[in-house]
Amino acid sequence: MARVKNMSKLDLDDTIAAVATPAGEGGIAVIRVSGPRAFVAVQPFFATHEKSALSDKPANTIVWGKFLDPAGSPVDQVLVSLFRAPQSYTGQDVLEISCHGGLAVTKKILGILLTKGVRHAEPGEFTRRAFLNGKLDLTQAEAVIDLIHARSGRSLEIAIRQLSGSLSRALKALKEELLRLLAHMEASLDFPEEDLEVDVKNGMRDQFTRVQEKIRSLLAGFDRNQLIREGVLVTIAGKPNVGKSSLFNALLERDRALVSDLPHTTRDQLEEALEIRGFYLRLRDTAGLISAPGHPLDKMGMDRTLEALKESNVVLYVVDGSAPLDASDRHVYQKIPPEKKTIAIINKCDLPFQAGGRDLEELLGTRPRILLSTRTREGFAELEEAIAGFLEQETSEAGEQITKLRHKKALESALTSLERAERSFLGEMSLEFVTPDLRAALEAMKELTGEVYSEDLLDVIFSEFCIGK
Fold this sequence. Notes:
Layout: E1 16-19, E2 26-34, H1 38-42, E3 46-47, E4 61-68, E5 74-83, E6 94-101, H2 103-114, E7 119-120, H3 125-132, H4 138-149, H5 153-163, H6 166-190, H7 204-230, E8 232-237, H8 244-252, E9 270-276, E10 279-285, H9 296-311, E11 314-320, H10 327-335, E12 341-347, H11 358-364, E13 369-371, H12 380-395, H13 405-426, H14 435-449, H15 455-462
Parallel strand pairs: 1-7, 8-10, 8-11, 11-12, 12-13
Antiparallel strand pairs: 1-2, 2-6, 3-4, 4-5, 5-6, 9-10
């Protein structure tokens, strides 16, 4: 695969090492070594009952032994996993040393290797080598960091699909359609008198439309994926003392917010993360809204609540089911932007119910409503189902979806060039004026998958990775 690149800032042919597991104490830790001297670097410090050297062992095997310091004293009992080029994660020779997971032992093993000509890996350098050696394309490499940072089951599913190459295959098919368009036009330019098998003058409009529709579909998926990856903001709103903080604590299943019978207990926002039915949520508790705040702190808290309502993806509008609906409840409801997805929570349903009747129907209209008790947990299953149902609807997908702003910008660039080429074509301009824009669209697609890249771009992408990955 041909790639255009600047002079690399890193020597990718030397041997690198890093701890691949999180810092701290644990059952095991893994020190990863990659490069042409990986076996040579580890062998002097590895002792086993077997007589053969590590370099003589077959690939994809695990060897038990002891890691020794330069004086020959044992540091730890370890397992060494062997992977040979090119059938390894990086495409180079790779050794993974599994030792006991303590700060001292991992630091010592890594330090010994670094004193013997092995370089400490930069952030993301193992995956960068995998990309440069053709083991992954750029979208798959980016999926690695998405997999590590996945906060919910849904975001994990997307990352796994992209790492397996599903997005890469969709982009490859799209790129091939662009190549066919370009090839047909160039053939027409080179052989204008020939009876070509494909007449580029017929059916080209449909080909332009089909490719653009596929690009727009991928772009439309970006916003849906942001909800899955970054988290859906769910804001709890209502007048004071309807049980907003109790609902917040109950959903988190721990006492995070202060709960009191006194009004205006919550004067600032609280935000916590949780997962509901595979979706990552950012749940926000807010100050109660009233029409005429009497204290400056109350007004500040309510101003923040109003801002939160504007930012939210979902609003949980809470009323006290044990009390009649009043003007304060209506005031809060009117402050919720009408376009927001709103679920009405009729709280305290374990007490005598007084919030029903025509007033509630007229206020909520067709909005979904749930009878709920934070004390007995009645209605919580229905609430979770309602939230998940909304998210299923908002994030439903047809085909693959892009996940990165870089993906979005590259596709937008390709679409702009393709639209310009179509305008020239439909304006019956010479094909010589159409093909340059088609080539620009194709170049944007190649940048997306990493067939064309710059070292600066790789630096930005892999700087997000942890050291050791």
